[in-house]
Protein backbone atom coordinates (compact mmCIF):
# COMPACT_ATOMS: atom_id res chain seq x y z
CA UNK A 1 0.00 0.00 0.00
CA UNK A 2 1.34 3.43 -0.91
CA UNK A 3 1.78 5.97 1.93
CA UNK A 4 -1.36 7.99 2.54
CA UNK A 5 -2.19 11.24 4.27
CA UNK A 6 -4.55 10.47 7.16
CA UNK A 7 -6.58 12.89 9.29
CA UNK A 8 -8.01 11.57 12.58
CA UNK A 9 -10.45 13.46 14.80
CA UNK A 10 -10.62 12.99 18.57
CA UNK A 11 -7.15 11.44 18.56
CA UNK A 12 -5.67 12.68 21.83
CA UNK A 13 -6.37 9.36 23.56
CA UNK A 14 -8.02 5.97 23.26
CA UNK A 15 -9.10 4.66 19.88
CA UNK A 16 -7.97 7.65 17.83
CA UNK A 17 -4.53 7.71 19.37
CA UNK A 18 -4.19 3.96 18.98
CA UNK A 19 -5.11 4.09 15.30
CA UNK A 20 -2.53 6.86 14.81
CA UNK A 21 0.15 4.73 16.48
CA UNK A 22 -0.71 1.81 14.20
CA UNK A 23 -0.68 3.83 10.98
CA UNK A 24 2.18 6.26 11.65
CA UNK A 25 5.07 3.97 10.58
CA UNK A 26 3.67 3.68 7.05
CA UNK A 27 1.58 6.80 6.53
CA UNK A 28 1.55 10.56 7.08
CA UNK A 29 -0.80 10.95 10.05
CA UNK A 30 -2.41 14.09 11.40
CA UNK A 31 -3.99 13.74 14.83
CA UNK A 32 -6.51 16.32 15.99
CA UNK A 33 -8.53 17.21 19.06
CA UNK A 34 -10.41 20.25 20.36
CA UNK A 35 -8.01 20.47 23.33
CA UNK A 36 -4.63 22.00 22.49
CA UNK A 37 -2.99 20.59 25.61
CA UNK A 38 -4.36 17.09 25.06
CA UNK A 39 -3.35 16.83 21.40
CA UNK A 40 0.14 18.17 22.11
CA UNK A 41 0.57 15.60 24.87
CA UNK A 42 -0.60 12.84 22.56
CA UNK A 43 1.90 13.94 19.92
CA UNK A 44 4.70 13.82 22.49
CA UNK A 45 3.59 10.39 23.71
CA UNK A 46 3.60 9.01 20.18
CA UNK A 47 6.99 10.58 19.46
CA UNK A 48 8.46 8.78 22.48
CA UNK A 49 7.12 5.55 20.97
CA UNK A 50 8.88 6.29 17.70
CA UNK A 51 5.78 7.53 15.87
CA UNK A 52 6.03 10.88 14.13
CA UNK A 53 2.67 12.57 13.60
CA UNK A 54 1.41 16.06 12.94
CA UNK A 55 -0.94 17.54 15.54
CA UNK A 56 -3.72 20.03 15.02
CA UNK A 57 -6.27 21.69 17.29
CA UNK A 58 -9.57 20.94 15.59
CA UNK A 59 -13.19 21.14 16.73
CA UNK A 60 -15.57 19.17 14.50
CA UNK A 61 -18.33 21.66 15.36
CA UNK A 62 -16.39 24.82 14.53
CA UNK A 63 -17.01 26.44 11.15
CA UNK A 64 -13.56 28.04 11.01
CA UNK A 65 -11.81 24.76 11.75
CA UNK A 66 -13.92 23.01 9.10
CA UNK A 67 -12.95 25.67 6.56
CA UNK A 68 -9.29 25.05 7.44
CA UNK A 69 -9.80 21.31 6.93
CA UNK A 70 -11.27 22.02 3.47
CA UNK A 71 -8.24 24.18 2.66
CA UNK A 72 -5.85 21.49 3.91
CA UNK A 73 -7.52 18.85 1.77
CA UNK A 74 -7.52 21.08 -1.31
CA UNK A 75 -3.90 22.19 -0.99
CA UNK A 76 -2.12 19.23 0.63
CA UNK A 77 -4.44 16.26 0.08
CA UNK A 78 -6.23 14.12 2.62
CA UNK A 79 -6.50 10.52 1.46
CA UNK A 80 -8.14 9.09 4.57
CA UNK A 81 -10.54 10.74 7.01
CA UNK A 82 -11.21 8.92 10.28
CA UNK A 83 -14.19 10.36 12.15
CA UNK A 84 -13.46 9.28 15.71
CA UNK A 85 -14.36 12.23 17.98
CA UNK A 86 -16.98 11.29 20.55
CA UNK A 87 -18.46 12.01 23.95
CA UNK A 88 -20.96 10.25 26.21
CA UNK A 89 -23.70 11.30 28.62
CA UNK A 90 -26.09 8.91 30.34
CA UNK A 91 -29.55 9.92 31.58
CA UNK A 92 -33.19 8.94 31.05
CA UNK A 93 -34.60 11.04 28.23
CA UNK A 94 -36.92 13.04 30.52
CA UNK A 95 -33.89 14.04 32.62
CA UNK A 96 -31.55 14.62 29.67
CA UNK A 97 -30.54 18.31 29.42
CA UNK A 98 -31.55 19.45 25.91
CA UNK A 99 -28.28 21.29 25.37
CA UNK A 100 -26.31 18.14 26.25
CA UNK A 101 -28.46 16.02 23.91
CA UNK A 102 -27.74 18.50 21.11
CA UNK A 103 -24.02 18.50 21.90
CA UNK A 104 -23.75 14.74 21.47
CA UNK A 105 -25.58 14.90 18.14
CA UNK A 106 -23.36 17.78 17.01
CA UNK A 107 -20.09 16.04 17.88
CA UNK A 108 -20.92 12.52 16.69
CA UNK A 109 -23.26 13.05 13.73
CA UNK A 110 -23.20 16.62 12.45
CA UNK A 111 -19.43 16.75 12.96
CA UNK A 112 -18.67 13.68 10.81
CA UNK A 113 -21.05 14.95 8.14
CA UNK A 114 -19.28 18.29 8.02
CA UNK A 115 -15.74 16.87 8.06
CA UNK A 116 -16.76 14.54 5.23
CA UNK A 117 -18.24 17.49 3.36
CA UNK A 118 -14.94 19.34 3.78
CA UNK A 119 -12.70 16.64 2.29
CA UNK A 120 -14.94 15.27 -0.48
CA UNK A 121 -14.14 17.84 -3.17
CA UNK A 122 -10.41 17.10 -2.95
CA UNK A 123 -11.01 13.34 -2.80
CA UNK A 124 -13.13 13.58 -5.95
CA UNK A 125 -10.48 15.65 -7.69
CA UNK A 126 -7.85 13.02 -6.78
CA UNK A 127 -10.23 10.15 -7.55
CA UNK A 128 -9.33 8.55 -4.24
CA UNK A 129 -10.64 8.67 -0.69
CA UNK A 130 -11.32 6.49 2.31
CA UNK A 131 -13.71 7.76 4.98
CA UNK A 132 -13.98 5.62 8.11
CA UNK A 133 -16.44 6.44 10.87
CA UNK A 134 -15.86 5.04 14.34
CA UNK A 135 -19.36 4.06 15.29
CA UNK A 136 -20.36 1.56 17.96
CA UNK A 137 -22.37 -1.55 18.53
CA UNK A 138 -24.89 1.14 19.49
CA UNK A 139 -25.04 1.99 15.79
CA UNK A 140 -26.99 -1.28 15.55
CA UNK A 141 -28.68 -1.84 18.93
CA UNK A 142 -29.75 0.33 21.84
CA UNK A 143 -29.11 0.58 25.57
CA UNK A 144 -31.27 2.43 28.04
CA UNK A 145 -30.33 5.97 29.10
CA UNK A 146 -28.11 6.59 26.06
CA UNK A 147 -30.67 8.14 23.70
CA UNK A 148 -28.42 10.85 22.24
CA UNK A 149 -25.41 8.55 21.81
CA UNK A 150 -27.49 5.80 20.21
CA UNK A 151 -29.29 8.26 17.93
CA UNK A 152 -25.99 9.76 16.76
CA UNK A 153 -24.32 6.39 16.19
CA UNK A 154 -27.36 5.06 14.31
CA UNK A 155 -27.26 8.19 12.20
CA UNK A 156 -23.69 7.48 11.10
CA UNK A 157 -24.91 4.41 9.21
CA UNK A 158 -27.46 6.43 7.27
CA UNK A 159 -24.87 9.11 6.56
CA UNK A 160 -22.40 6.54 5.21
CA UNK A 161 -24.98 4.85 2.99
CA UNK A 162 -26.06 8.15 1.50
CA UNK A 163 -22.55 9.46 0.86
CA UNK A 164 -21.52 6.10 -0.62
CA UNK A 165 -24.24 6.47 -3.25
CA UNK A 166 -23.26 10.07 -3.96
CA UNK A 167 -19.58 9.23 -4.59
CA UNK A 168 -20.03 5.83 -6.23
CA UNK A 169 -18.56 7.05 -9.51
CA UNK A 170 -15.24 7.88 -7.81
CA UNK A 171 -12.72 5.67 -6.04
CA UNK A 172 -14.05 6.76 -2.64
CA UNK A 173 -15.47 4.52 0.07
CA UNK A 174 -17.15 5.28 3.38
CA UNK A 175 -17.73 2.72 6.12
CA UNK A 176 -18.54 2.60 9.82
CA UNK A 177 -16.79 0.42 12.40
CA UNK A 178 -19.16 -0.83 15.09
CA UNK A 179 -17.22 -2.16 18.09
CA UNK A 180 -18.53 -3.42 21.38
CA UNK A 181 -16.77 -2.21 24.53
CA UNK A 182 -13.18 -1.31 23.65
CA UNK A 183 -10.31 -1.72 26.10
CA UNK A 184 -9.38 1.93 26.66
CA UNK A 185 -8.24 3.88 29.70
CA UNK A 186 -11.69 5.50 29.83
CA UNK A 187 -13.43 2.13 30.03
CA UNK A 188 -10.99 0.93 32.69
CA UNK A 189 -11.76 4.05 34.73
CA UNK A 190 -15.48 3.30 34.40
CA UNK A 191 -14.89 -0.22 35.68
CA UNK A 192 -13.03 1.08 38.72
CA UNK A 193 -15.71 3.68 39.45
CA UNK A 194 -18.54 1.14 39.18
CA UNK A 195 -16.69 -1.32 41.41
CA UNK A 196 -16.28 1.36 44.08
CA UNK A 197 -19.86 2.62 43.73
CA UNK A 198 -21.43 -0.85 43.98
CA UNK A 199 -18.84 -2.27 46.38
CA UNK A 200 -18.14 -5.24 44.11
CA UNK A 201 -14.92 -6.60 42.58
CA UNK A 202 -13.77 -5.14 39.27
CA UNK A 203 -13.98 -8.63 37.76
CA UNK A 204 -17.70 -8.68 38.56
CA UNK A 205 -18.17 -5.31 36.87
CA UNK A 206 -16.36 -6.60 33.78
CA UNK A 207 -18.21 -9.92 33.46
CA UNK A 208 -21.69 -9.05 34.76
CA UNK A 209 -22.05 -5.45 33.59
CA UNK A 210 -19.59 -4.38 30.90
CA UNK A 211 -19.33 -7.66 28.97
CA UNK A 212 -22.76 -9.04 29.81
CA UNK A 213 -23.97 -8.68 26.21
CA UNK A 214 -20.75 -9.92 24.58
CA UNK A 215 -20.76 -13.75 24.38
CA UNK A 216 -16.97 -13.95 23.93
CA UNK A 217 -16.54 -12.01 27.20
CA UNK A 218 -13.57 -10.08 25.83
CA UNK A 219 -13.01 -6.38 25.33
CA UNK A 220 -12.29 -5.29 21.79
CA UNK A 221 -8.62 -4.31 21.52
CA UNK A 222 -7.71 -0.99 19.92
CA UNK A 223 -5.32 -2.93 17.69
CA UNK A 224 -8.29 -4.80 16.20
CA UNK A 225 -9.92 -1.53 15.20
CA UNK A 226 -6.63 -0.14 13.88
CA UNK A 227 -6.00 -3.26 11.82
CA UNK A 228 -9.50 -3.06 10.36
CA UNK A 229 -8.92 0.59 9.48
CA UNK A 230 -5.68 -0.35 7.71
CA UNK A 231 -7.50 -3.05 5.74
CA UNK A 232 -10.23 -0.62 4.66
CA UNK A 233 -7.53 1.75 3.41
CA UNK A 234 -6.02 -0.95 1.23
CA UNK A 235 -6.66 -2.23 -2.29
CA UNK A 236 -8.63 -5.30 -1.23
CA UNK A 237 -11.37 -3.13 0.27
CA UNK A 238 -12.01 -0.88 -2.73
CA UNK A 239 -15.55 -2.24 -3.16
CA UNK A 240 -16.41 -2.32 0.54
CA UNK A 241 -18.51 0.78 1.07
CA UNK A 242 -21.66 1.83 2.98
CA UNK A 243 -21.04 -1.04 5.39
CA UNK A 244 -21.40 -1.40 9.15
CA UNK A 245 -18.39 -3.52 10.09
CA UNK A 246 -19.12 -5.08 13.43
CA UNK A 247 -16.50 -6.09 16.01
CA UNK A 248 -18.73 -7.01 18.94
CA UNK A 249 -17.79 -10.46 20.26
CA UNK A 250 -21.20 -11.78 19.17
CA UNK A 251 -23.32 -9.07 20.86
CA UNK A 252 -25.65 -8.56 17.86
CA UNK A 253 -26.04 -12.29 17.23
CA UNK A 254 -28.58 -12.53 20.04
From TrEMBL:
<dbReference type="GO" id="GO:0032787">
    <property type="term" value="P:monocarboxylic acid metabolic process"/>
</dbReference>
<dbReference type="InterPro" id="IPR020904">
    <property type="entry name" value="Sc_DH/Rdtase_CS"/>
</dbReference>
<dbReference type="InterPro" id="IPR011294">
    <property type="entry name" value="3-OHbutyrate_DH"/>
</dbReference>
<dbReference type="InterPro" id="IPR002347">
    <property type="entry name" value="SDR_fam"/>
</dbReference>
<dbReference type="InterPro" id="IPR036291">
    <property type="entry name" value="NAD(P)-bd_dom_sf"/>
</dbReference>
<protein>
    <submittedName>
        <fullName>3-hydroxybutyrate dehydrogenase</fullName>
    </submittedName>
</protein>
<comment type="similarity">
    <text>Belongs to the short-chain dehydrogenases/reductases (SDR) family.</text>
</comment>
<dbReference type="GO" id="GO:0003858">
    <property type="term" value="F:3-hydroxybutyrate dehydrogenase activity"/>
</dbReference>
<dbReference type="Pfam" id="PF00106">
    <property type="entry name" value="adh_short"/>
</dbReference>
<dbReference type="InterPro" id="IPR050259">
    <property type="entry name" value="SDR"/>
</dbReference>
Amino acid sequence: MKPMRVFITGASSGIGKGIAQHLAPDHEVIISDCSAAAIKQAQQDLKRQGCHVEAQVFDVCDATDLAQLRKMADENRIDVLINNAGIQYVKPLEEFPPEKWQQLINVMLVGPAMTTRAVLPAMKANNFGRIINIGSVHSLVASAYKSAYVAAKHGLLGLAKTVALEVAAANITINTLCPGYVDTDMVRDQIKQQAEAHQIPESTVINDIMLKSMPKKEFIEISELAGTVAFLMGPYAKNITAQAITLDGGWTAR
